[in-house]
User: Fold this.
Amino acid sequence: MNLTLKVWRQDGPAAAGRFVMYDATDISPDMSFLEMLDAVNEQLISEGQLPIEFDHDCREGICGTCSLMIDGIPHGPQLSTATCQLHMRKFADGDTITIEPWRAAGFPIVRDLVVDRSAFDRIIEAGGFISVATGSAPDANLMPVPQAAAEAAMDAAACIGCGACVAACPNGAAQLFTAAKVSHLNLLPQGQPERLMRTVNMVDTMEEYFGSCTNIGECTTACPKDISLDFIALMNRDYVRGKVKQRRLTGQRA
Amino acid sequence: MTTTAEAPAKKRSLPWFLEFYNSNVGRKWVMAISGIVGLGFVFFHMFGNLHLYEEPARFDEYAEGLRDFGEPIFSRTLILWIARFGLLAAFAVHVHAGFTLWWKNRKAKPVGYERQQFVEATFASRYMLITGVIVLAFIVYHLAHLTWGLEFLNPSFTRGEARENLIEGLESPITAGWYVVANLALGLHILHGAWSLFQSLGVTHPRFNRWRRNFAVGLTAVIVAGNVSFPIAISTGLVGS
Ligand code: FES
Assistant:
C-alpha cells in the first residue's frame, strides 16, 4: 500500500518545528506502524536526508517507549493498543496519516517526534519506598491479600508509563498515570504504611509539571492498557485524607 | 492501618486550608463542594418556582415565606441573608477555582495538535468554562432583572410583587429566549459537573458508579425542564396575571 505521511519535524528543543510531507511507498499491511516508519527512514537515509526521530524500545507493547499522536489519537485509531502494536492493515491504501509528538508543557520536545518524559520519573521518585521486611524470601501467602485488591492492583500496575494520558488530555494533566502508580501500591497491604505520604508527595510532584484533571475521560480511552478513571477518584480521596491526616499527626507531635 | 510513617512536619508558610487550596487536587475538591452548594440552590430555586403553576396568591406567599423563614426563632430575613452570604461565598470560590485552574491548564498545554480526535470527552465536559461564563453572566443579569429590579432592565418592577414582576419580566420573547438559552447552558454545566464532583471528591464504588452518571443526567433533566418551562409558559401566555 502507498501512504502519505504528514510528520512533525523539529531540529531541537528550541527550534521551530514544521510539518513535512513524505510518501511511504510499497508498505506491507502486515508491517507495524513503527516498521512502516523504519521503511520511510531507510529511504530518507539512502537519499542522504536525516531520518525521522521517534521513540521505541520493546516493540511488543510493554515498555511504553513508543509515543506517537497518530491522526489525532495517541497511539492511533486502534484503541487499547500501543503504537508498536498497531498494524498498517488498520489503514487504507492512499491514506494521509498525520503524525505528531505528545504535546504538553511537562513533555518538552527533544527532536521531531521524541519528547522528554522524565517528569514521570520525578513522580515515581517522589513515591519513595515501601516498608517490607527483608531477608530470606517470605513463605508464599504469608501476607493475605484479598483477591479483589490483588486484581485491582494488577489493573493499575498495567500502566506502562507511555504518557498517552497526558497527550490526550486537553489540560495536559498526568492524573491517570499518577493515579495508576499510586493505586497499585495503595491497594495492597504492603503499600499501607506510607500510603498517604506517598499519595501527597506524588501528587504534589505531578502538579509541578502537569495540569489539573477536569474528569473529561479522554485519557482512559487513549490508554493502551485501559487504566480506569476510578483510580483517579481513589487518588483524590487519598490525597485529601493525606492532607488532613498529616496535619493531625504533626499536631500531635508538638 | 498503620500511620507511623507519615511525612515529617514540613515548614508551612501558609495556613493549612490555603495550602490545600493551592494544590490542584485540593482546589478541585473545593470546586466540588461549592458546586454541590450551587446544585442544591439551583434545585430548590426551580422547585420553589413551581408555585407559579398554582393559584396566583401562592407564589407571593412562597416569596414572602423565604423572607420569614425561621421566624419566630430568628428575626425576619435573617436566615435568608445567611443563606445569601453562604451562596455568595460558595459561588465566589467556585468561580475563582474554575478560572485559576483553567489558566493553569492552559499553561500546561501551551501547544495543541494539528489534529485531535476526541473519543470519550463529551461536549459538556470540554466546554465547562464557556457554559460557566454564560451562567455567571446570566446570574448577574437575573439578579438585576428580578431581584434588584433595575429600572433600565425592568421598568415595571414593584418590590414585593414577586409573581407580577416575574410575569411582566418574562413577557417579551427575547427575554424569555435568553432565559431559556442560559438555562440550557446551566444544564450542560450540571450534566458534567454533577458527575465530575464524585471523581473530584474521590467518591467511587463499583456498585454505585453507574448511578453517578444517572444522577447527573436525571438532575440535569429535572432542573432544565423546570427552569425552561417558566419563561416558555409565561411568554406564550399559558400563565398570566
Ligand atoms: S515500543 Fe515498547 S511499548 Fe511500544
